[in-house]
Input
Amino acid sequence: MSTEHFLEVQGLKKHFEAGRPALFSRDVQKVHAVDGVGFTLRRSEVIALVGESGCGKSTLALLLMGLEDPTAGTIKFEGQDITHLNDHERKDLRRKIQMVFQDPYESLNPTQTIEEIVTEPLVVHGFANVPDRRERVVKAMEDAGLKPAEVYMSRYPHELSGGQRQRVVIAAALVLEPEIILADEPVSMLDVSIRAEVINLLAELRITRQIAVIFITHDLGSVGFFADRVAVMYLGRIVEIGTMLEVLENPQHPYTKALISVIPVPNPRLRHERIILKGETPNPINVPSGCRFHPRCPVAIESCKASDPPMVTLSKTHQSACLLLVK
Amino acid sequence: MNRSRAILNKTAWAVFTILFVIVLNFFLFRILPGDPARAGMKDPRLKQEAIEALQVRFGLDKPVINCFDSLNPIKIGNCNVNPLETQFFIYIGNLFKGDLGISYDTNRPVSEMLSERLWNTILLIGAGQILSIILGMVFGILGAWKARTLVDYGSTGISLLFWSLPTFWLGIVLLFWGSANGFPIAGKATPGMSSYPLFQQWGDVLWHMFLPTLTYTIIFMGEYTLIMRSSLVDVLSEDYILTAKAKGVSAFQILKDHALRNAMLPLVTVIAINLGFTVAGAIQIESVFSWPGLGSAVFEAVERRDYPVLQGAFILIAVSVILANLLADLTYTYLDPRVQVE
Output
């Protein structure tokens, strides 16, 4: 099996209908939540998907999980097209792709014990009666940092802290021994002191279990040190993608440059000028013409209003969509 | 705090509340304008000896409580009475023996009168509640599961209509409809049924129950449907439902294991409160259909100023409200592990 084509996403689009602009208007407005996203994921690779809120990161996660049906585009997993699957076909796939949601306070059922929560995926996927069921649960919990697992098993989610809850969510994702974990802002609801622990945990898992991680975040600073590659999303599209070093040290897209310039730097002597973007993220119903970033771009030129920039290949791994890079 | 202590704590509070109600109930009926001692004996033709004989029979010759013959604060009465001989302590003592006094109107023991009425009410309300809970849950779940479809709009619209119908009005409409279609419209049994075999008597009672139960079910079904639907729609949009979907849990399992248990909580509260109040709240239905239940007993007692019956019925209603709330509390601690007692 080629590692190059582990997970392959091409031209993925999701448009939501947003009602009519006026009561008797004929045309239905559309939210272009995800508007042509393409990337590949290699086995046991960590890719960070960065963008402002509202740029379509979470919708992309739901599309990859098959929880939303894409409007266009394809998703291939190990060479097999998984874009549109029925529930039955989807179920086998869910074992291999698991998700960690943003808010550990909301994503655990308050009436289930931790043991029930972590065991449920096994039961659902027909491992209810395997002899090592309990060992699997214990192993998943301890791998997720809930040690010793017995202490936590009979507790309820409300008896745990935010960090512990997120570990429960991760344990429930691990118990099926997935190949990909999709983490949708897994640390944004946690205290800063706990964020590093959870990120370290995910970084460890890709080494110990060879799990690929798609790490969705709005905070470039938090992923810098463990992602292999970084993809920057703006208004439903990836505007720059490259290895972590390429994107962080040598950003090419003006949006990426702005994002990186506002990462807080602890040493005041190393501080540099911040690029503060004007205005807000445009409404994804009326996407700007041409380059969708041009209304806020500090270096936009006249032709940016007219033509949509193509992805420009800067190196074997580094690509960016900006007209200024087209030579 | 562990669960058994929580249960004990809540039960203790319920008992305390009941004791408070018992005391309050006694004074309430003696503060009321229209002295109970005279209410039933206003007839000017009654001789003094006859009035005194009646007062002795109903225990009204004794002082209300030590120093007070009546609850008139200006008139200080005899303070040299054995406290246990006052009306208050006799009332308390009798209450614990299950004696609620004697009806002014029928001269029968109140406990006897109320207990046969209570069973009729429990029969009617029990059937109505069970039916409306089942139907309300079915339509509520259906509405939430098919949210924003024609099924949902239909069931929500009809429920809203049912919920807003005035009880007595629906009762009267069904009464007209029933009488035109050969349903029994009054009472609990056909006169003379007692000579028939037992199962035929039961069938007759069920036949008589049809219209009042239907009224009751329609009124409460609407409320339960709406609560179930909105609560379930809320729960279905929770992140843990999405998590369950991502785990691969089937739609039916999500509904059964994740959504319903959480969505039941508001419904349990409303059902328990209704259960408590409907012992009294069935007054309208019982009056329209002349159902010999507790509600109509209260209605008749008010009309006839039958204070001992009212006093007994009030205690019964208060106790049932308190017990229903206790039941709701206990069900809650079972359904929701987050509920803890301080």
About this structure: Residues 235 and 262 of chain B are 7 Å apart (CA to CA).
